[in-house]
Amino acid sequence: MASTSQTLTNSAHEPGYTCITFSRDGRLSYTGGSDSLVRIWKMDKDQYQEPEVAYEAEEGITALASANDYWLSGSKDSEVRSYPHGKPDLHGLIMNAAGVCVRALAVDPTGKRVAVATDETTVKIIDLDEITNVTTLTGHKKCVRKVTWHPSGTLLTASGADGTITVWNISEREPRVDKLLEGVIPAVADTESSEFMHDCSAVWHPSGQYFLTGSRTHEIVAISRPNWEKSSTFSDANTTGITTALALSLNGVYLASACKEEILVWSTQTKRVLWRHATSPNALTTQIAFSPSQNLLAWADTEGILTWWRDPIPTGSPDPVKQSTAGSVQGVPLKRQSTPTLWGEGPADAGRGSGAGDGDDYGDDWIIDDLGVGMEDDKQDGPPGRQSGNGFVKEMVSITKAQPAFQTGSTPMEGKKRYLAYNMVGWIDVTDQDTHHIVNVGFHDLSTRKSYHFSDPFKYDAGYLGERGVLLACPPERDHPAQVLYKPYGTWSTQGDWTYVLPVGHHVLGLAAGGERTMRSLRDPSSSGGDIQGVGNIVIATSAGDLTFLSGSGLERIVLGLEGEYVTMAAGEEYVVVVHRPGATTIDGSQGLMATLISFEDFEVLQAKPLPIPKGHVLKWIGITDEGAPAIYDSAGYAHLMINFRRPNRAIWARLLDTNTLERKQGKDESYWPVGLSQDTFTCVILKGRQEHPGFPRPLTQELPVRLPFRNKDAIESPIAEKLARERIHINLARDALGDELTSSELDKREIELDKSIIKLIQAACKIDKAPRVLELTKRLHFTHSIAAASQLAGFYKLIGLQEKIEAIKRWREDGPTPVEEARERRRELEQEDAYMAHPKPFQDFKPPPRVERPSLARPTGVVERTEFTASNTAVRGFRARVAQTPARSASPEGKRKRDEEDDPVSNGPETDAKRRAVEEFDTAISSPKREEPSK
């Protein structure tokens, strides 16, 4: 419906682009036009007032902004000027854009910084208190038309002429891109066209949950955080045409938009037009603004006319300035949770009113009050909120921002150049030529592979440099789907390249290319296997939440679902390690990342371990070491290596390096961009100051020594103990890769060198008479001759008792198993411990149940009794009969009395001996029972 409120107009400037802004207190408004003048209007007077004028600009005014104590103007003469609040007297020059037009100004909510956009591809953030403190945001492809601040002052949105909206995170020391939104606003390249005058700003709602902008489809869309997706659309059947300007009321209840020849006032809750007002018929409204202190709406047009609409919100409707529970705002659907009591028995506040009896009756359609006042009945549910003096929303909970997906070794576009990959194999860099890219693939070892370059019409934005080929991916653009290109290194066939096309609407989140390492050159199959070893394995992470495995020849192998959000990955010879977030981040700063090792052979999960990243930090790099082990590097400066990764369920992260303790870093402001990690060296690019990634020309990589972060500062023992522990880690990794043999001549040599280091520690312990340490170190020796050397050391220092114990250890080692045999037995024990995991789970074993043996139910079987009277003992009985007929033996020797036959009921003669022999000869025979002695 049409409004009957009063409107005031004034021909403030000459025809052309005209801009307007209010002072922060709302008592003044500033307008600038193509006549290079800025006029200062007092809001308590009518349109016939004589405003004060600032004359310093030499060309047309293109941007105005208001700070706490100053107001700023930008013009086509490349200068940004500052003036005292409410006065036309020049205060100073903020910036000179060196011959290009200033397009937009935006002062942050605190009034301390101003963002300046020009016809260049950069945005500069200038400290108003110290204008030499400048932060430059780079990466835009074309000039930036508008910039706006998030209510918290931590985010800056830049609307580019290429049709993109870049969301910059300014909360950290170095700004970074949170999101790049494409296809939302129209792309306009001609700065002199009328369409370039349209206000394409991302207008933030005071809640900070979303922003509004005019889309290329002539709609007003809301883009919500944190997923940065379109959440709603403002549309009206009676309104057609392009939206040329937008503004939100201070409390976010109302939205004002300019379209064709009218001004529309919308409700941000219902998304419907509430009031309309006609404008000049042949003029284009270029900027519109709500007063921050009263019910007033003002706009300027291409005719140079300034219009004030007093009381655009009728009496009886919610006020556009004051915060009110009646205000209807855009919200996020959320089920409201009940507040537990001290004992967890129910809601703490049962008397919230009707419909809240159990604290959980609000349902899924509950709307969070973005103004912060609708939740006043629930203040005890969380920590005290933050309410600023100029009406910003209360922050109820601070959630850790999730680390987005990234490609290891890649950098953002700067100066139309960037790196897609940078590792120990080589690098991939691209140069933007506007219509296409030039891709340059270089290698560190040119004797193995030859560098090359090619023209890229698809503008690849992700790459991976593997041992067997180069993997590239481009994003979808309009009707063109995302696709992946693989270029193997093989030379015998020119048809090795292939392309893998993703479904429409899918994006590539990450790439990895694994494969066996070459010994020399791919041109020599006799020494390295060449193409006979294959062209590797490919893994693609897509926006559909899956991991697609392909062979190096382009054959699809399997598609695995990924549990959680993908972050990054790296591929080795046998497996790919994928970093993902299975759950959510925590409030105290933890990213909650997990590393999963997946085998290329049969897609088994070899290991799944959380990353040891300190709270408040993020993952910076992941790679595979020369020994084939996964390694990571985080923003805290720690490098970790996964040890025991070949042992099921035994992997753990070992901290190999703390770059904060490096001697070269002490007293310097530098950081390290990882390239590779080996046993002794950390290969990286050294960055100075606040630099976060290498630039061009390509810097040289440097090798820093790897040192375990041991805290013992003893000048003699500490270096030896550190080297001993680090060498032990890599020997175990090499031993795990050998299989059942567990030893080799190379490992024997390394263990001999290890024993030499242990002998040095034993000598140091003998000097200070530390017998327990000597015995401990002696047990760690690998060879008996090394133990003999330790015994000699103890004897040399006159430690006789200690020498005897060492000799006992030597004998125990000679009589017992060798260290290799112990390791082999330990491996078998671990396999037995893990055997239960190979058993089928309940309801997954369809075999018949095993037979249960019950001895009590066994069938009876006959038992054959065998005695001397059985048929089998016939020969025994015949022998006994013949013995019975033999005469008795002669009398006993002299001096011994011969017993009478009746005295001995059982004869001791030959019959007894024969009987015994028969029993011994025929084991089955059983002797006859004794005769009873006759009674006397």
TrEMBL record:
Residues 817-830, 842-856 have a biased composition (Basic and acidic residues). It is found in: Nucleus. GO terms for molecular function: chromatin binding. Residues 11-306 form the WDHD1 first WD40 domain. Residues 722-813 form the WDHD1/CFT4 helical bundle domain. It comes from the Eukaryota. This is Minichromosome loss protein Mcl1 middle region domain-containing protein. It comes from Paxillus rubicundulus Ve08.2h10.
